[in-house]
Amino acid sequence: MTDLIRVLIADDHSLVRAGFQSVLSIESDITVVGEARTGAEAVALAREEAPDVVLMDVRMPEMDGLEATRLITSDPRLRGTRVVVLTTFDLDEYVFGALRAGASGFLLKGAEPAALIEAVRTVARGDALLEPGATRRLIEAYVGQPHADPAPAARLVLPSALTSRELEILTLIAAGLTNTEIAARLFISPLTCKSHVSRILAKLDARDRTQLAVIAYESGLVVPGQPHAPGVHPAD
Question: What's phi and psi for 107, nearest 5 deg?
Fold first, then answer.
């Protein structure tokens, strides 16, 4: 990676911000361009700095992380900005709300420094934090619940907008498989798989693979608790 990855840290605890700043600032390919104490500050700084990655706490004063995430991901000027939600435990309904609002994944606050650095690099590349399976488990835990609010638009668009091959690939994306793993499973080249994924993203107007996974569950293409596809075994 030749370009610096520009990161914004949003958390109402100064100690948390300082810790993340300390970890990230020693990396030659990462620079912290700002720190926010509230969701409102995070949105304002994101619009000012257009960072590559925002590390977003879910519970902050003035404006929570869910609303801040929604405002950032819905801003056309910030199309290249990815949000990683920070949380204290993974099966958190609030975090799932942030994923539905456009976050690219989430990270536990107690994660090791190496995991934080890799998470920043992963989403900066345009990939989603679907491994080691926690995001998938979170989606499964809440999409099928009575309080979940399925997206009717997704239910209507999936069958007509995607080809059978694209539906198959979308199912495997929801299982957490990488392009290389999908290509091997379907006996196609990684480049062909990448092209299919790009078309799926465009057709469904999704930001990244995490959004595709959410759509796959909310549309009913993948049913929580059932195998994703014949022969597919999601990696945890």
Answer: -135, 135
Q: In total, how many domains does the chain have?
A: 2
Statement: residue 178 has pLDDT above 60: yes
Helices (H), the chain: 14-25, 39-49, 65-73, 93-100, 113-124, 134-143, 152-161, 164-174, 179-186, 190-204, 209-218
Where residue 28 sits, what CATH number does that domain have?
A: 3.40.50.2300
Residue 234's nearest CA partner among 95, 134, 124 is: 134
3-state secondary structure 28-71: CCEEEEEEECCHHHHHHHHHHHCCCEEEEECCCCCCCHHHHHHH
Would the CA dihedral through 182, 187, 192, 197 be positive or negative?
A: negative
pLDDT tens readout for residues 125-160: 877 665 445 666 777 776 666 554 544 445 445 657
Within a domain: residue 228?
no
The pLDDT tens digits of the residues spanning 74-106 come to 999 999 999 999 888 766 677 778 888 889 888
